[in-house]
Amino acid sequence: MQVLIWAGAALTLIGIGGLGYCVLKAMRARRSGLDDAGMRAELQKVVLLNTVALGVSALGLMMVVAGIALG
User: Fold this and answer.
1) Is residue 70 part of a domain?
2) Integer Cα distance of 60 and 71 in angstroms
3) d(CA 30, CA 24)
4) What is the pLDDT of residues 41-62, one digit of tens each?
5) CA-to-CA distance for 40 and 58, rounded, in angstroms?
6) Which of 55, 43, 48 is nearest to 15 (CA)?
7) What UniProt keywords apply to this chain's record, in alphabetical order (predicted)?
């Protein structure tokens, strides 16, 4: 079960890194001075990436909990 725990921890860290990337990308878009339509398009991409990163992180945490419960 150690493999499940470590794989889950790695997935969680990848997801957290993705969330940090989303924050940086949104701040960069905010500073770029885009018009309303451009800002909306850029933030829609960030929302999609944010959702994926959150899902990966949640999957990793589930793997960690399952590894602890089974071990």
Assistant:
1) no
2) 16
3) 10
4) 999 999 999 999 999 999 999 9
5) 27
6) 55
7) Membrane, Transmembrane, Transmembrane helix
